[in-house]
Structure formats: C-alpha cells, structure tokens
Amino acid sequence: MKYVFFLILCLLLASPVQAGPIYVYTDDTGAIRFTSKPPPKGVTAKVFSAKKPKYSLFRRGRKQKLFHKKYQSIIKKVSQRYQVSEPLIRAVIHTESAFNPRAVSPKGARGLMQIMPFHDKNLGIEDPFEPAQNIEAGVRLLAELGKRYRNNLSLVLAAYNAGEEAVSRYGGVPPYKETQHYVKRVLRLRNEYRSVSS
C-alpha cells in the first residue's frame, strides 16, 4: 500500500499539467484520496506542491546537523600542534565517521578519522578507536599531506580519501565519483563549521 501511495504521488508531482497543490487525505472509509481541491472541512490533509514542495522525497542539499562541540579540547590541541584549522578537522571527522569513534568502513578504515591499519605504525596508533589517538593521527596525516601538496586542500583531501598514488597517477583529484564527492563535501562542511566558530 505504501508503494502504491509513493508511485501515485511521484506521477502526480511529475505531471506537466499539474501546477497547483495536491491534497492527500484518508476519507471515512479508510481510502486514500488525492485531489486538487481542498478536502472537506475538519479533515486533515498533507499538501504537496510542484512549485514549493512542503514535503520532499529527497534530502539532497539539506543542511546537516553540525557537531561543533564534540571532542573540543582534543581538536583544539591538535589543531594548534599541527597548524590545521579546527573547521577542517571537524569537516573531515564529520564526513569520515559522523563523529562515531567506533566506525569501521568496508575497507577496514577505523575510528573518527577512518585511519587505515597500514598507517598505525607510522602515525603512532595503538588503539584506533581511542578518540585522542585517532584524531591526532588523522590531523598529523592531513598536515603531512598539506606540506606535500603546498596546502592545496583539494589535493590534500583527495589524497586522504583515495591515496597519494592515485593523486600522482592522475596529476590531481582522481576521476573517482566517491573522491570528487568527498572533496566537495568536506570543503562545504568546513565552510559551515567555519561560520559556526566565527
């Protein structure tokens, strides 16, 4: 029943001749009604409009909740130590794990900043799920990439996501949809965190 409701709604909203609002409500018999006319008085209805939708079928572009206070002391400390901005650190953590310290990716990346196991020794990680260790390791890696790519953030983030070899192979941000989306998302979130902290 839910599938039928969704399908009918999509067809109505996609129709080129339907410009006004669509009222959806359940009548006395329990049937779902779709109409361009306002429902009877006293009946509660959902309103869908092709011009200014009150309800959206997609969440793309919707502003996300920001975590501007989580791990504040740790992030501030490593930001100063490695000269990497706090908004950028938060944007990377947000994109990588949504601030979940127990996150594990399908590829095996772990913790807040999704550090791959082969980085553990070089970055001094003993427990990848311990927030302070994970954040310090991730920020240290960002700082090292910043030096390598002369603070070109797009290249820094592409290397963080896809690896330095991929950036070298393509002479820039690799043509991977995941990496290109990742770079854009982190930069957008960095701006949002920057606006909150300013």
Q: Which key phrases capture this entry?
A:
198 residues, mainly alpha, Lysozyme, 6% strand
Description:
This protein has 198 residues and is mainly alpha-helical. It has two domains: 2-48, no CATH class; 72-197, Orthogonal Bundle (Lysozyme). It contains eight helices and three strands, in the order αβββααααααα. It has helices at 2-14, 72-82, 86-97, 120-123, 131-148, 153-162, 164-170, 177-197; strands spanning 22-26, 32-35, 46-48. Strands 2-1-3 form a three-stranded antiparallel beta sheet, with helices on one face. A hairpin with a 5-residue loop joins β1 and β2. α2 packs parallel to α5, α3 packs across α8 (177-197) and α6 packs across α8. The termini are far apart. The model is unreliable at 2-7, 11-19 and 49-62 (pLDDT under 50).
Summarize this structure briefly:
The protein is mainly alpha-helical.
Rg, alpha carbons = 23 Å
Largest sheet: 3 strands, antiparallel
CATH class category name of the largest domain: Mainly Alpha
Provide the CATH architecture of the largest domain: Orthogonal Bundle
Secondary-structure-derived class: mainly alpha
- The residue-averaged pLDDT reads 82
What CATH calls the topology of the largest domain is Lysozyme
Shape: elongated
DSSP helical segment count: 8
Point out poorly predicted stretches: 2-7, 11-19, 49-62
How many strand units? 3
Q: In percent, how helical is the residue content?
A: 40-55%
Strand order of the largest sheet: 2-1-3
Number of domains: 2
Q: How are the SSEs ordered, and which strands pair?
A:
Elements (H helix, E strand, L loop, with lengths): L1 H13 L7 E5 L5 E4 L10 E3 L23 H11 L3 H12 L22 H4 L7 H18 L4 H10 L1 H7 L6 H21 L1
Antiparallel strand pairs: 1-2, 1-3
